[in-house]
Design brief:
The structure holds 2 protein chains of 2 kinds. Chain A is of the alpha/beta class. Chain A has 9 helices and 14 strands. Chain A starts with a helix and ends in a 13-residue tail after the last strand. By secondary structure, chain B is of the alpha/beta class. Chain B has 2 domains: about 260 residues, 3-Layer(aba) Sandwich (Aldehyde Dehydrogenase, Chain A, domain 1); about 180 residues, Aldehyde Dehydrogenase, Chain A, domain 2. Classes of the chains: A alpha/beta, B alpha/beta. The interface between A and B is medium-sized, with 18 and 14 residues.
Chain lengths: ~375, ~475
């Protein structure tokens, strides 16, 4: 065993111990009548076991069974607010809403904490502190707009934003209104170009793959590039952020600007990626912001069992913050289980894509 | 395994994403196809004018010569494929293996392509009504003392191609000599013809920067349509409806081709039985020019029974059997869905599956990895029966009883209409019918094409706009 392998094993072991301790803390918090939320306290009242006694580590969370996301659809939203935060200002953030009533997650500071953790790892060379940002992605009831704005502020900058309603985009696609779809994309890109040309010293950006592509092509028509117009660092994500697309962007769109993949969801937070480079075939491997959230890749037919490393399975998410407790939720995604990485000494997931059984009925990557 | 790269204006591009193309009967992977992404298409097509410029640097008559040479290479040469080469026999076997077409159908389609390439000068002469192609190159010129000017509507023609019938590739062959670039998005199971034809063109001296091939998903097809001012797409009725009325997109969907027998000829229907069989059966009924409806004022039950009896002998045979007349359904579930739709539609009184009495097996032949649909003839008592408007991708036709004076109004859109009649009034009505695209007057099989005539619109008119031009 090499030193680095030994270090990684030691770090993975330490991370696991920290996770188990975190689980005990979070479970104690959510099932304490003084601090927990009505949803989980009601649940505990109907259960014949006490999570505070029986949950002593991450593996014990399987006693809850699988989390049914229907519980997050519809109200009253206050049942998710921990009593300890009852007097704090509460945000509610919604998932994309690709199917039916969207899921809601309440938040006090979680979105700030998640994005600060991520912001701490952004390279200053490409995301200069004090530089201004452009948030070119979905707005409205999603947390992303506020989160990116907070990230910019946290790093000393100011974030410019545009409106983008992905639910309208989904409707346009389903109706086959291609012209409207293209016009809407043009409208969004118009706003981005206007901001980038307005002398605001915007150097950093969050955007989606489709919008980045549209923006880069628009700039190409204007005989300039993302880099020439001032962008030095981009983070982006979503199911469209594939290795091939990342390679295409690096080789043909970015003109030397730095871009890193991320996977953010309302229910999880923000997962970072290990480096995605030509040397590893632009492979994209996401690592959850452990211990606040844990991603596992499991056998779809036996979700308590992890698949082997390198093997395909369904993504299972557990979220463990003082604001939100969600054990063992089966995402609508699948991917391959990946080994721990130096900066993130726990399991990762690569090749994330819609779960094959659901793929045909889901509209993804639309904006 | 064979690898198909994307072609970006002639330059191979190996994608990090590939899809395997499988043998329809064994499931064995035959090829790995690099998948383009929409951004690549959008970016490349910003340079489409370079493709046209490269073609305009070669005189049109010279391009015609090179294309003729390409016909010979396509039919006989070992051409580059993957890390090696592909012989014509390899091509036949490979195309059959992934599309479900029998090998002799693949050869038949090769012959169609060869014929068109070898006669492109005559075809263009016909489609342009004898225009000197130099006028297209230059943009203007005098003809019979008159100034003519034509402007290209696009530097490159986009095409979203199907997997089911390689004969459709004949439609884009005249494009290169017209000095318009080619942007091809092949069907998932049929990368073979676009690739081999491009290689034949290149070997014959056609500038490589004039052709792009972008394998990929539906988003890549959408990118081709979005980024080319003129494009062709092949698909089902939803596709046709989505692009109907879009002047930049020529849509090729189901043909609903028909044979209409007039009052004056219907008593002699037996004379035309061979024509009907060929129209329904050739190329396994997959072409838009295959007949899916035979309409007559009387004797329709006898016609349907006679056709059914003739077609009932057609069996599902292995693709390398020279007697194989049926192509396989390679997409699991497709044949089952079609079979279910037929059964469901037959529940409405007034239609009968006439082949059932002559067939020993079920209509749907299920095999481990693919399916076959045996020829099916349904008799309909009236044009109002829902079955009368059906068309499927196998030898299927309805024989519909309909008074002659109601026929043209009831048949709906018809790509090829063969009118068997000597009645001058009915012939004139057929000539005037706006719902019939290609009209055959007299006993001509629907599948018999005259290549010198336009198909679903004149490709020259689609790619060039006549305009006024004066010079001081």
């Amino acid at each position: 065993m090499t030193n680095s392998e030994g270090d990684l094993q030691a770090n993975a072991h330490a991370a696991r111990e920290a996770l188990d301790a975190h689980v005990r803390e979070i479970v104690a918090w959510h099932f304490d009548p003084a601090t927990g939320c009505p949803f989980w306290l009601d649940w505990a009242a109907g259960a014949d076991w006490d999570p505070r006694v029986e949950i002593q580590g991450f593996d014990d969370l399987s006693k809850f069974g699988l989390f049914e996301d229907e519980a997050l659809r519809g109200g009253p939203v206050r049942r998710w607010v921990p009593k300890a935060y009852a007097d704090r200002p509460i945000y509610t953030f919604e998932t994309g809403g690709t199917t039916g009533t969207p899921k809601s997650r309440i938040s006090v500071d979680d979105f700030r904490i998640d994005y600060e953790m991520f912001a701490d790892n952004l390279p200053d060379e490409y995301f200069p502190r004090g530089a201004n940002w452009l948030m070119l992605g979905p707005s409205g009831p999603r947390r992303l707009r506020l989160a990116v704005e907070h990230l910019a502020q946290y790093r000393g900058g100011i974030s410019f934003c545009v409106d983008l309603d992905p639910r309208w985009v989904i409707k346009l696609i389903k109706k086959g209104w291609t012209e409207h779809l293209e016009a809407y994309q043009e409208h969004v890109v118009d706003q981005a170009v206007t901001i980038l040309q307005a002398g605001h010293d915007v150097r950093c950006m969050f955007t989606t793959p489709k919008l980045l592509e549209a923006l880069a092509l628009r700039l190409d028509d204007m005989d300039t590039t993302l880099h020439e117009i001032g962008i030095t660092g981009i983070f982006s994500g979503g199911t469209e952020f594939t290795p091939q697309w990342n390679r295409f962007a690096h080789e043909e769109l970015l003109d030397g600007a730095y871009m890193t993949p991320t996977s953010g969801t309302t229910l999880m937070g923000l997962a970072a990626s290990s480096p995605s480079t030509p040397e590893n075939g632009y492979k994209i491997t996401y690592y959850a912001p452990q211990p606040r959230a844990v991603i596992q890749v499991v056998d779809p037919d036996d979700p308590d069992t992890l698949v082997d490393y390198g093997t395909t399975g369904r993504v299972k998410l557990t979220t463990l913050t003082k604001e939100f407790f969600m054990p063992a939720f089966l995402e609508r995604d699948e991917g391959e289980r990946e080994m721990p990485y130096a900066a993130y000494p726990w399991d990762g997931v690569s090749g994330v894509r819609p779960f094959a059984k659901f793929a045909k009925s889901t509209t993804v990557g639309v904006y | 395994m064979i690898h198909f790269p994307a072609l970006r204006w002639g330059k191979p591009y190996e994608s990090l994403e590939t899809e395997e193309v499988l043998h329809f009967a064994t499931g064995e992977p035959i090829a790995r196809v690099s998948q383009a992404n929409p951004g690549i298409v959008a970016r490349d097509l910003r340079k489409a004018q370079k493709a046209r410029n490269a073609l305009r640097a070669v005189p049109a008559v010279e391009l015609l010569e090179r294309v003729r040479k390409a016909a010979d290479l396509f039919m006989t040469a070992d051409l580059p494929l993957g890390d090696g080469t592909q012989s014509p026999e390899d091509f036949v076997r490979q195309q059959s293996a992934t599309t479900g077409l029998s090998e002799h159908m693949a050869r038949m389609n090769m012959d169609k392509l060869r014929f068109v390439l070898e006669h492109l000068d005559e075809i263009l002469d016909s489609l342009t009504r004898g225009l000197d192609l130099e006028i297209l190159t230059r943009g203007y010129g005098e003809e019979s003392g008159l100034m003519r000017s034509y402007q290209a509507t696009t530097p490159a023609l986009g095409m979203v191609l199907p997997s089911n019938s390689p004969g459709v590739h004949t439609l884009w062959l005249p494009v290169i000599p017209m000095q318009i670039g080619l942007v091809l998005k092949p069907g998932p199971q049929e990368p073979w013809t676009p690739w081999r034809m491009a290689q034949a063109f290149f070997a014959a001296g056609v500038p490589s920067e004039s052709i792009s091939i972008y394998p990929g998903g539906a988003d890549v097809g959408a990118a081709v349509l979005k980024n080319t001012p003129r494009s062709l797409i092949f698909g089902g009725l939803p596709t046709v409806n989505a692009y109907r009325g879009n002047p930049g997109v020529q849509v090729h969907g189901p043909g609903f081709s028909k044979i209409l027998i007039g009052e004056d000829c219907v008593d002699d229907w037996e004379q035309h039985l061979d024509l009907m069989v060929d129209s329904v059966l050739v190329n396994s009924g997959r072409s838009c020019i295959n007949c899916s409806g035979i309409w007559a004022p009387r004797h329709t039950r006898e016609i349907a029974a006679a056709l059914a009896e003739r077609l009932a002998g057609v069996e599902a045979l292995p693709p390398d059997n020279d007697a194989a007349q049926l192509a396989a359904f390679t997409v699991k579930g497709q044949a089952e869905a079609i079979n279910g739709d037929i059964d469901e539609t037959l529940k409405t009184p007034g239609a009968e599956d006439m082949t059932a009495a002559f067939r020993s097996a079920d209509r749907w032949v299920e095999q481990e990895l693919c399916d076959y649909m045996l020829p099916t003839i349904v008799h309909c008592d009236s044009p109002e029966h829902p079955m009368a408007a059906k068309e499927y991708m196998f030898p299927f036709a309805t024989v519909v009883q309909c008074p002659q004076d109601k026929m043209i109004g009831a048949i709906g859109d018809t790509l090829v209409g063969t009118g068997i009649t000597n009645d001058d009034a009915f012939r004139q009505q057929l000539l005037d019918a706006g719902n019939i695209d290609r009209l055959n007057l007299g006993p001509v099989p629907t599948i018999s094409l005259n290549w010198l005539q336009p198909h679903e619109g004149n490709i020259v008119d689609f790619l060039y706009r006549a305009r006024a031009f004066q010079q001081g």
